[in-house]
Amino acid sequence: MKIIDRYQKPTPKFFRLLRNIGIVLASTGGAIIAAPVAIPATIVTIATYMTVAGTVATAIIPK
């Protein structure tokens, strides 16, 4: 199978699930970081990691 043939096929269910989880993590982390209230530093740090992990998971899974 050529890489172009594989790219044109639909994304498997497992990877769609990972992509959706990544989107949720990135958006939740971003919302916590952007909150206009005082939040403890540990929660902001966790939210930062969530945002990075979600962005990476979303970026590496095509379609």
Biggest sheet: strands, sense, closure? Answer: none
- Provide mean pLDDT, rounded: 90
Q: What helical percentage do the residues reach?
A: over 70%
Give the CA-CA distance, first to last residue: 19 Å
Helix and strand sequence: HHH
Can you offer a commentary on this structure?
The chain crosses the membrane at residues 21-39. Keywords: Membrane, Transmembrane, Transmembrane helix. The protein is mostly helical and 63 residues long. It has one domain (11-60). The chain has helices at residues 3-8, 13-33, 41-60. The longest helix has 21 residues, at 13-33. The model has no long low-confidence stretch (mean pLDDT 90).
Would you spell out the secondary-structure blueprint of this structure?
Blueprint: H1 3-8, H2 13-33, H3 41-60
Helix pairs in contact: 2-3
Transmembrane segments: 21-39
Keywords: Membrane, Transmembrane, Transmembrane helix
